[in-house]
Structure formats: structure tokens, C-alpha cells
Amino acid sequence: MGEGDFGLAWLKLLFVFMVLTAMPTSAVASIGKVLSVKQGADVIRAGKKIRLHEGMEVTSGDTISTNRTGIVQLLFVDETKIAVGPNARMILDVSMLRGNRKAKNFTVQALGGSFRFISGKSRKRAYSIKTPTATMAVRGTTFDMWITSQNQSAMLVIEGTVQMCGRRGSCRSASRQCSMFATRSDGQVGRPADQAQYDKALEGGFPFIRSQQNLLPPFQVSAEGCSNRTALAPRIEERPDPRPDRRREIAARTEAPARDEAPSPERPDPGENPSARAETGGLSSSGAGVSSGGLNVSADPTGGGGTGSGARATATAGGVTATAGW
To answer: Exposed e or buried b for every residue in 188-211, given b needs 16+ CB within 10 A?
Structure first.
């Protein structure tokens, strides 16, 4: 090979290298794209903040955030769909199977705000939804989430089954439409103590249940039975595993409603002790935004009074109350 041929080959290699390095990251590692975006949404990628726009591709490692007016609707290559509500932030950690349009790992870190999650064609065990206070496993699921910064996480099931686990290992599974669970400051998981608190949670942190007019048709679901009234924030009750003689009653209560009946939100047990309460404060709505505050909890180890037995807890902050006894 002459000097001229060697030089030409070197130039070809240099050209190929320059083309590859100039290719956008999304062309190499795209995991999905933005179907719709309402002004007020950004992505942080490789340390740079970029304004999101319709048709933009997203990659693993992206941090997506919205302000009080922003809404983002994402479609992933495995057909998973995520709607990101106002004042929200999440980090995507997704790895795709080689030569397959399914995810090997699909992890979403939801750090604050409201979301709708609709699972796609990936295996159930590939999905993991993490918040500062909970981890959720999904089973062919559509559900909404509300994360109030570092304080509390809540989820509402629309279709399928979701298991929610708190930081202390307490887990609750829900498969009935409109079932809601939330974490407590002590790391446990419970459900709204009564209908009023359920409705307050819907108004304070589940904007896609209140209205779906900002969502594209693929993100809209039938959940009319979940919203009856409007208000501000959840208080939650917590109970240990049911006693043997109550397991059948609990199982019947969690069965899916008949198709021809509108589903109704879960209500507290009639035997609930009204004296055992906890107040979760600072969960309030302001326009499209959500603010959060502290939670002070005191425990009553005697559990005196009421119809049940065991420890009872009382928590106070911000004038909203949560049941914590059993």
C-alpha cells in the first residue's frame, strides 16, 4: 500500500468517527418520545437543562420536570405510557432487551408531583416505581400517583394490581378500581380513614382523576366512579395483617366491581375507632401545584378503648387527620 492509499484510508476512518460522535444521543439510546407537552416542562440530560418539545426523544437517565402549568405525556418503545402532571419531577432508568421492543428494566423514580402510569408490553417484573417513601410493583396496571416531596406518597388504582411497600417493609396490594393507599411518616402503608379524606386526596393530588381534558385519548381511562366530591389531602389508617376470622371479609371487600356497576371508593371499616387518629399536615392544593409540610406523631401503646386491640397512633400537623390504630 502506497503512502497515498494509507492516507486515504486514514481519512475514511476519521470521517466515520466524526459522523458517529456527531450523532445525537437519542439516535443511539432512545427509549421513548414526547407525544404532547404543555408549556413549562424541561429535561436535564448530561447535566444540561433542555426545554421539552413535542416529538422529542427521551433516554435512560433523563430527569423530567414540570412547573405549575407543565404537563408531559410520554410513550415508550414498549408502549408504556406516563403522564407527568404539574410541579412534578421524575428520573428514568430504562434498559431495553437487545433486538426487542421490551424493557429488561423499567425503573421510574418519581420524586414529586402527580403522575399517571400505564404499563406496556414489558414483563411485569421489569417494572419498578420508586418514590422517596415507597416502592410500587405493577401487574398489568393503570394507576395514578401523588408524591408530596419527601413526606408522603399515595397511589390510586384504576386497572390491574399494584403492590405498595413502605420504607419499613409494610406492603399493601390493591386491585379494586379506585382503591387508594398512602404512606405514613413511620414507614407504614394505609388507606384513607374516611370518604372525606379520600375526596381531599383526589382534589389535592390527583389532577387526572378530576379532569382528563388535557390528556390525549391513549392516556384517558374510565374512572368516573373514583371522584364524588372535592377537597384537599389524605389522612390514612394503618392496620396489621387481618386476623384469620376477618380474612374472608377483607378478600370480599377487595374484589373487582361488576362491569355494569360504577365502582365506588373504598370506605373505612364500620368498627374503626374514631379516637385513634393521625393528622398529616401541609398537603394542600394551590392552583395546579402541591405544597407539603411536617408531620408530628405520638403513639398510644396501650391502645385503650375502641373495638380493636393493639397499638394506636395519633399524629397532628396542619389540621388534617389520619387513623393509625387497629
So the answer is: bbbbbbbeebbbbbbbbbbbbbee
